[in-house]
Design a protein that fits this description.
By secondary structure, this protein is α/β, with parallel strands linked by helices. Helices cover 38% and strands 12% of the residues. Helix 1 packs parallel to helix 10 and helix 8 packs antiparallel against helix 11.
Amino acid sequence: MSPMEQRTLGRTGRDVSVVGQGTWQLGGDWGEVAEPDAFGVLDAAVESGVTFFDTADVYGDGRSEQLIGRYLKNRPDAGILVATKMGRRADQVPENYVLDNFRTWNDRSRANLGVDTLDLVQLHCPPSSVYSSDAVYDALDTLVAEERIAAYAVSVETCAEALTALARPGVASVQIILNPFRPKPLDEVLPAAVAAGVGIIARVPLASGLLSGKYTEDTVFAPGDHRTYNRHGEAFDQGETFSGIDFATGVAAAAEFAELAPEGVTPAQTALRWVIQQPGVTSVIPGARSVEQARANAAAAALPPLPQSTLDAVRELYDRRIRAAIHDRW
C-alpha cells in the first residue's frame, strides 16, 4: 500500500488519510454500481493509501455499509477508520432524535458493517434544532458509554449548524460541504474547529462532479442519479447536489476552473488539492465509481500545494461567477 499523509481526526485521537473515500456512490444513488466494481473502488483506495471510509445508513438503504463490511472482513490489515451516519431514514422531526431510536439505528449499522463498535457515528444533517439539544448529546454519550460507538460527530448543511455543534465537548468532528465553489466554511467554521481541536471532514469536494470539468449543459444523468432528481432540492437539501449551484452556472464556472489546473494535473485533482491545503481540514472525501477515479483522487494528496496566484484566481472566479449568480437568484 502507498503511504499518504495522515492527520488526526479531531477528538477521535485517530489518524486518517488526507484523502478519504466517500461511498455514497456505492449505494447506487449516483447510478447502479455492481458489487465487484464497488470492491474494486475500495481496493484501489486502500492500495493508494486511503485509511478513511465515509458512509451512511441511508446510502442505498444500507447497501454502502454492507459492502464496506464485507470488504473489510477480508481486509483486516487495511487499518480503515469507518465513519457512518444516522438519522435520515426517519422522518426529519426533532422528536425522532432520541436514545431509543439511536440504539435501533445503531444496531442496524453495526449489523451492516459487521462490527460490535462503530468507529465514528455522525448525525446526518438533522433538523437544525437537534444541534442545540442537550438530550441529543446525552444520548450520544450513552452510546459511547455502552461501547456501541467509539466517538460521535455531526454532518451539517450550514455554517451556523457547524458552529453550534463545535461548542459541544463530545463532538469529535464536523462534516461540511467545502470546495472551490463553496468556500464559506473557510471564514469561521475552520478556524473555530482548529481552536476547539475538532476535525473537519470536507464533503462534496467536486461539487457533484462539476469540478471535474467533464460536463456540458447537455449532459444527462440517469433517472436514479440525485443529479437528476434533486437538482432543485426536490428530495433533500439542494446543497448536496452541485453544491446548490444551478447547473448552467456551474458548468460555465467549471470550464474556467479547469484552465487553472497546473500542467499534468486534472481539474478534479486541483479541486481536491485546494481543499486539502485549507487550514483545519482533516480529510476530504471524494466519491468514485471506478478504480481509475479512486486512484486519481488519492493521487491529489501527493501534489504540491497550489500557489497563492492560483488560490487568488479561484477566489476571483467564485466571486465573479458563483456568488454573483447566488445574489441574482435571491
